[in-house]
Amino acid sequence: MEKEAHIQLTKLTKNYKEGDKIRSVLDDLELHVQEGEMIVLLGRSGSGKSTMLNLVSGIDKPDSGEVIIGGTNLAELNEKDRTLFRRKNIGFVFQSFNLISTLTARENVLLPLKLKGNSDEASSEIVDHFLNEVGLGDRGDSYPDRLSGGEQQRVAIARALAHEPMLILADEPTGNLDFETGSTILDILNKLVRENGRTMIIATHDRDICKMADRVLELSGGKLHIAENNAEVAQQ
């Protein structure tokens, strides 16, 4: 018997109105992702990568189709319930880090745990663990403006994983980093996601990221196309 997919996108459609015209971004898009699988999503600017991540996370709703994560169809939930689902089940790593400037690194990582309702004692241990895992155990009291770009992205990775989400979504996670720092960040991200058994979708222009993927998909014309050879894609 075939194992049910952890994430199922079925006939996913999203259009936007631009003036008097309707622009189709996603057109009956289909994707099934198994638990623990790492997907790299390639595509040109404007191809719909961020739109797809917004639908998968429940930030936005599709015009039609289903977004099923762990058995829950986000397309059937109202905005409040999608927010609650996202808070509990999804972790984010953004290009611009998106740390809260008035919170320390430790407080940024602690925030999703508090929102999830974890006890202070349990949360404190988890935060310490993940800050140590990303090599920032001694920088917990530092504010984002005192951290380098690479350090801020490490905090963002710790924050994304700390509340044990079902799914990690990363949108251009190395886009604001130099090559060497970006490579270090990818190594950390890959290691922690694999060790914690998380499912992950990474949207990127960076074909070097393809080397760490289980599958590489390219979004074009509103549909996903499978790259058969990850190493080949990374060398293009």
Structural overview:
This protein has 236 residues and is α/β, with parallel strands linked by helices. It has one domain (36-50, 78-235): Rossmann fold. The protein has 7 helices and 10 strands. Strands 6-7-8-3-9-10 form a 6-stranded mixed beta sheet. A 4-stranded antiparallel beta sheet has the order 2-1-4-5.
Task: Spell out the blueprint of helices and strands.
Layout lengths: L6 E12 L2 E13 L4 E5 L6 H9 L6 E6 L2 E2 L5 H11 E5 L10 H12 L3 H14 L15 H14 L4 E5 L7 H17 L3 E6 L10 E6 L2 E5 L2 H6 L1
Parallel strand pairs: 3-8, 3-9, 6-7, 7-8
Antiparallel strand pairs: 1-2, 1-4, 4-5, 9-10
The number of domains is 1
CATH topology group: Rossmann fold
Distance between the termini: 37 Å
* Strand runs, count: 10
Give the oligomeric state of the chains in this entry, treating copies of one chain as homo and distinct chains as hetero.
single chain
What would CATH call the homologous superfamily?
Answer: P-loop containing nucleotide triphosphate hydrolases
Q: Bin the helical content.
A: 25-40%
Q: What is the average of the pLDDT values?
A: 90
CATH architectural label: 3-Layer(aba) Sandwich
Summarize the structure.
This protein has helices at residues 49-57, 79-89, 105-116, 120-133, 149-162, 179-195, 230-235, and strands at residues 7-18, 21-33, 38-42, 64-69, 72-73, 90-94, 167-171, 199-204, 215-220, 223-227. It is α/β, with parallel strands linked by helices and 236 residues long.
